[in-house]
Design goal:
Order of helices and strands: HHHHEHEHEEHHH
Strand order of the largest sheet: 2-1-3-4
CATH superfamily: Glutaredoxin
Number of strands: 4
Structural class: alpha+beta
Protein name: Thioredoxin family protein
Number of domains: 1
Oligomer: single chain
Number of helices: 9
Distance between the termini: 37 Å
CATH architecture: 3-Layer(aba) Sandwich
Organism: Winogradskyella bathintestinalis
Helix content: 40-55%
Length: 204
């Protein structure tokens, strides 16, 4: 199909047809780890190693991430039927911290459908949702489930982490390996609460 003539709704519909559930995504990543491989076009050793690390991270968050009772009550009472379509890849560090949290929230309400597509297999979709001109992931596209209209977006990081990244880039020009390690520590301390807060804002 010629992507130049497709509307955004066509692109979204096609991507939803290619999508998987979070459970399927977790199986995919575990299988890739067993094969020493990764999603995406780049199968470099570094990205294979990141996929292995991220599989462990996701397993940890799947077990330990918590939603407060107050937020749980708000989410459970949400009545609009929506789809959270997330663009990602298994090697993405931010995605490993964020995607299990999205799942914890989506599991609380049958009106929220959580679907995942891989960035490199869905270029037309990714091109519609760039961040500052870049193909940054994970990117959540919030859709009206009945019309596939785009309601809002989230990502590639929670707002608090985005502010940390932007401040560091402004001061230093680039993100150093030391800063990236600090960011991973921030995710561990935050325990997904900033992501949950941003998802609640999407639903508000």
């Amino acid at each position: 199909m010629d992507t130049n003539t497709l509307t955004i709704k066509d692109i979204i519909s096609e991507s939803l047809n290619n999508s998987m559930t979070y459970a399927d995504y977790r199986i995919l990543v575990s299988n890739l780890v067993a094969k020493n491989s990764t999603t995406g076009n780049d199968k470099s050793e570094d990205l294979v190693a990141y996929t292995q690390l991220n599989d462990r991270r996701m397993r940890r968050w799947d077990k330990t991430a918590k939603v407060s009772e107050e937020i749980k009550s708000f989410i459970e009472n949400y009545t609009k039927k929506i789809t959270w379509l997330v663009i990602s890849e298994s090697w993405c560090g931010d995605a490993a911290h964020i995607m299990p949290i999205i799942n914890k929230v989506a599991e609380l309400n049958a009106n929220i459908e959580y679907k995942i597509v891989l960035r490199d297999e869905n270029e037309a979709l990714m091109d519609q949702f760039l961040t500052n001109g870049g193909k940054s992931i994970p990117k959540l596209v919030m859709l009206d489930s009945e019309t596939n209209e785009v309601i809002n977006t989230f990502g590639p990081r929670p707002t608090v982490a985005t502010n940390l990244v932007n401040a560091y880039k402004t001061e230093h020009g680039i993100l150093t390996p030391a800063f990236k390690e600090d960011l991973q520590r921030w995710y561990n301390i935050d325990k997904g609460q900033s992501t949950i807060a941003d998802l609640v804002r999407l639903l508000s």
